[in-house]
Amino acid sequence: MLVNIIVSRNRVSGEIRTGIRLRLENPPPGVNYRVINEPVGLSPSSNDFYITRDTTTKWFLKALIEPAYSLKLRGLTHAFFLNLFIPRTPWVQEIDQPIFNLFEKYIGKSRKSSLYRLAIKTFRYLFNRDNVAVITWTNGVRRALRRRGLGMLGLCHRQW
Questions:
Q1: For residues 5 and 26, what is the distance between their CA atoms, to the nearest angstrom?
Q2: Which of 3, 20, 42, 97 has its CA 20 to 30 A from that of 29?
Q3: Which residue(s) pair with 77 in the sheet?
C-alpha cells in the first residue's frame, strides 16, 4: 500500500525530524511511503517556541497554504505534529503532546484565551472525522486530547 507521508525537517541540519525518520525506516508491513515535504518552512535562525515575526509569518502561511495543499493529496496520508491540512482523504495524524502545551509552554497563552479556544475548535473540526485516525505518543496525550473532545473517532496510543 502506498501512503503519503508529510515530512518536516530540522531547520538547522535539514534532516528529517526523528519521529518521521523512524517511521520511514520502519514502515508497517506492506506499507511504502511517498515523501511529501511540508510546504511551509522557516529559516534556521527562527524558533517555533517563541512568538516572533518569523513564527507569526510561518503560521499565517500555514493557515493559507496547508488547507489549499490538502486539495492535491490523494490516498492515505500520514502526518505528524500539529498542522492545518484538511483531511479530505483517509488520514493518520500523529501527535506527540497535548495542544495546550503549544499555548501554555511555548507561547505563554492561557487555556482561557480566545486564541486557544479557536485552536481547539479548529483541531476538533480537523481531527473528529470518520476518515481520520489519531495516534498519540503517550497515554497522557491521549487523555488530554479526549478531555478537549479531540480525536474521538480514531484515537489510539502507539505501543513501543
A1: 13
A2: 97
A3: 4, 91
Tens digit of pLDDT for each residue in 14-46?
A: 888 888 999 999 998 999 999 998 877 666 555
* Residue 122 near residue 149 (C-beta atoms within 8 A): no
Sheet with 91-95: list strands edge to edge: 32-37, 2-7, 77-80, 91-95, 132-136, 156-157
Structure pTM? 0.74
Task: Find how far residue 134's CA is from the centre of its chain.
Answer: 10
Q: What is the pLDDT of residues 63-119, one digit of tens each?
A: 888 888 888 889 999 988 777 788 888 988 888 777 766 666 656 666 777 877 787
Residue 88: what residue type? R
Which residue do the cell numbers 496547508 mark? 66
